[in-house]
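Look over this record before class:
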Amino acid sequence: ALKSLPDLEHCVYGFSTGGSKIQTFVYKDREINKIQALSRMMEHDGTAIGHHVAHVGDKMLKQYPDVQNKIMFVLTDGSPTHTGNHGLTSIQHTRAMVDLLRNQGIMVFGIGLDNAFPDSIGNELFGEGQYAILKDVSSALPLLVKRNRTVLDRAKI
């Protein structure tokens, strides 16, 4: 859907969390285009959303300093589960990373796939009105496209 917008440059990142190993994968950005690898994506243990939001946000700021309207859509199939050694819960850590990126000029919106989390967690992670929960991914495509259009309109893209 994003490819259809002519003046929109976009990236796609994924992540894997298994045990103590946290990996971020680049599927598409200014330097890499392996978008076909998305079809081989597999489910892994854990959901270290905060760590990956921070990592991808850092990449966005470094690779796209000339882009004014930076938007991150965080798609997840579950609530965050990994915290690290900072004394915060996984939800608090994720929200802290989301707030950090917002303070650096990146608009961050959450998308919970297949009932990934309840509204109360969505509010804690992303803030009221800053996320959508898709109860059934295959039938929710129109909602996702409409929501993305609303966000892009707000950013004047």
Q: What stands out?
A: The first helix runs from residue 49 to 63. The chain is about 30% helix and 20% strand.
